Amino acid sequence: MPEVEFWAHHLEQNKSRNWHSNFGPLSEKLESTLHLMYGLNGESVVTACNATSGLSACLIAQDIRGPVLCPAFTFQASACAILGAGCQPIILDVDAQTGIVAPDQLRLAFAESEAKAAIIVAPYGISFDATQHARVCKEAGARLIIDNAAGLGINRKRFLARVMVDNVDEVFSLHATKPFGIGEGGAVFTPTQNAAALRSAINFGLATHSGNGATKPPYWGINGKMSEVAAAVGLAVAERMAERVCRRQEMVREWYETFADHSDIVYKAEIESSPWQVFPIFLQSETLLLKFIHKMAAKRIELRRYYFPSLGDCGGMKAIQECTNSRKLSQVAVVLPVRSFMQKKQRSSLMATALESLEQVLTEG
Ligand SMILES: *Cc1c(COP(=O)(O)O)cnc(C)c1O
Predict the structure, then answer these.
(1) Scanning 16, 103, 140, 240, which has the fewest C-beta atoms within 10 Å of its C-beta?
(2) Nearest of 192, 204, 145 to residue 170 by alpha carbon
(3) 153-173: buried (b, 16+ CB within 10 Å) or exposed (e) per residue?
């Protein structure tokens, strides 16, 4: 997190204009800054108090009701956002290798449900080409919402051609644990024609209300606005974000080198496809995974199981199919740390410890 001296001065603007919330000067400035850094033509940025509210707002803005498709392999927030919008999550399985919902699976799920929207997840904030998914949704007359919570920080042009997709929202988290970390925050990249509805959806649906009642959606909303203090921190993070991403990608390059002899357990992706919240690996079994976590813990390195448990094992969630790939991925996935600012010596020691622990676990079986 940036030191106070790098963001406190932004708050002078709020004082001089006596404007402290509700699309204030700083959240507006953060939106235009994010658009300049990562936005596409025809797109606008709407900030939110976190990604979960941003995801809910995408559904509310379009007046989506009833079932919404959601992958079983994700962080719990994806399903929470659907419930928070008054809709019903219906989970579906992901590809066994990529952890992403395949376009064909999405097509089948639309055929088997009445869903008018789907959330798909970019696992670990590693971007992928979603144009086929967008096409499938368009054919189904549905909205596509990409939960790319951990993925803010890269050039998005290669992954989404905005000219083709006017039915897609992409949602990022600015939570302290994400690469673009500001504490709590979210940012939605949405087609410009949807921006006003989205703003209304995070402000109780007020903008579309009138004396005669609302005539177009959203008909209601949540309080999902970003605070001006959070936006001030965001402006400070933006200033150094290019450097952060560069350093994180460098660290991931080192992780790949460290595990060069274990290419079967690493998640294969281009370095440039993510700002790398974490470095995910997938062991052969849950038993090995737990042994590895304990071994690392004994050396005072805490690892996180992510995403665990899979939504299919959370209970109370309707499913299109038995989500076996998601369950398997959840049982064997663990993430290794990536940091924006970590000394070379510390990085080397961390990676040597991880490699040593892994090889011990593999030999012991
Ligand atoms: C972190 C995360 C979220 C939640 O983001 P918040 O800003 O904390 O609401 C949602 N989805 C995924 C995949 C995440 O990793």
Answers:
(1) 16
(2) 145
(3) bbebeebbebeebebbbbbbb
Residue closest via CA to ligand 1's atom 2 equals 149
From the list 145, 136, 150, the residue with the least C-alpha distance to 89 is 145
Domain ranges of the chain: 4-234, 241-364
Tell me the CATH architecture of domain 4-234.
3-Layer(aba) Sandwich (3.40)
- For 74-85, the pLDDT digits (tens) are 999 999 999 999
What pLDDT digit, counting tens, does each position of 283-326 carry?
999 999 999 999 999 999 999 999 999 998 888 899 999 999 99
> Dihedral (C-alpha) 6, 277, 250, 344: value to the nearest 10 degrees?
70
Overall size of the chain counted in residues: 365
Fold exhibited by the domain 241-364? Aspartate Aminotransferase, domain 1 (3.90.1150)
Could you give the strand order of the β-sheet that contains 143-147, starting from the edge strand earlier in sequence? 43-48, 186-191, 168-173, 143-147, 117-121, 67-71, 88-92, 318-319
Pocket of ligand 1 (CB under 6 A): 50-52, 74-75, 77-78, 121, 147, 149-150, 173, 175, 186
Residue carrying the six token digits 């940036």: 2
